[in-house]
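> forwarded from #structure-qc
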């Protein structure tokens, strides 16, 4: 009778994928009906704050022991918006947060009553956010400051100087942007960016997200390779490990 469930994206992805595959086995008509009702449930929950999901889908939630869950909080890695959306459609208060070990560890969390599926939420009280070196789409490296930021790595002054400025700003190494409402959207890791010959910044995590709920794909890794040594342009490759 657990009521609060915290986990990483892989766990929540596996749960929802297994659940929906079980529904698919009931036939296309049943699956279509369930997905249609889920869409209505999600709309009512997000727009009118009316939650009917647990009444409608309690029999499904019991199959993965989520019938008593009050809230699920996901963190620790990139989460596809589709996973975020489906849990809420089923009537579970599901939100995503963000933070690092170096920030003790949480700095952002989606409010249950005003969540955005593509976002890790708004910053908590006392957290300052700065986006540096923005590209044409507004993506930049996320820097954080506040009382939750570490004083430094133990006995590692050089490593500390690499990520922590003298005035207390922590370079997270993550790339993203803040929308007009102050919600933080993560798009990738600075060190993982692939720059194509057209000058486009490609974030592997954004592509990988689209495959997280494919049952036939166990793991996928999007990586860059040198396409033209003279121009140092990169191509994009996908390494796929089937289920």
């Amino acid at each position: 009778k657990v009521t609060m469930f915290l986990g990483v994206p892989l766990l929540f992805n596996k749960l929802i994928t297994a659940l929906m595959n079980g529904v698919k086995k009931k036939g296309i008509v049943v699956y279509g009906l369930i997905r249609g009702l889920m869409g209505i449930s999600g709309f009512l929950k997000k727009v009118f704050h009316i939650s009917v999901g647990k009444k409608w889908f309690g029999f499904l939630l019991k199959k993965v022991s989520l019938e008593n869950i009050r809230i699920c909080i996901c963190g620790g890695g990139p989460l596809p918006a589709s996973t975020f959306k489906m849990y809420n459609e089923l009537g579970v208060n599901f939100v995503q947060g963000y933070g690092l070990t170096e920030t003790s560890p949480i700095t952002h969390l989606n409010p249950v009553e005003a969540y955005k599926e593509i976002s890790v939420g708004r910053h908590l009280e006392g957290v300052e956010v700065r986006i540096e070196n923005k590209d044409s789409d507004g993506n930049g490296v996320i820097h954080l400051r506040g009382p939750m930021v570490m004083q430094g790595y133990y006995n590692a002054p050089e490593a500390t100087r690499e990520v922590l400025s003298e005035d207390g700003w922590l370079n997270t190494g993550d790339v993203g942007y803040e929308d007009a409402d102050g919600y933080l959207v993560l798009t990738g890791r600075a060190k993982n960016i692939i720059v194509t010959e057209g000058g486009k910044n490609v974030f592997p995590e954004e592509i990988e997200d689209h495959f997280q709920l494919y049952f036939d794909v166990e793991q996928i890794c999007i990586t860059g390779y040198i396409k033209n040594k003279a121009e140092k342009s990169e191509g994009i490759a996908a390494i796929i490990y089937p289920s």
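QC bot note: The helical segments are 9-24, 28-48, 53-61, 81-89, 157-163, 204-209. The longest strand covers residues 217-228.
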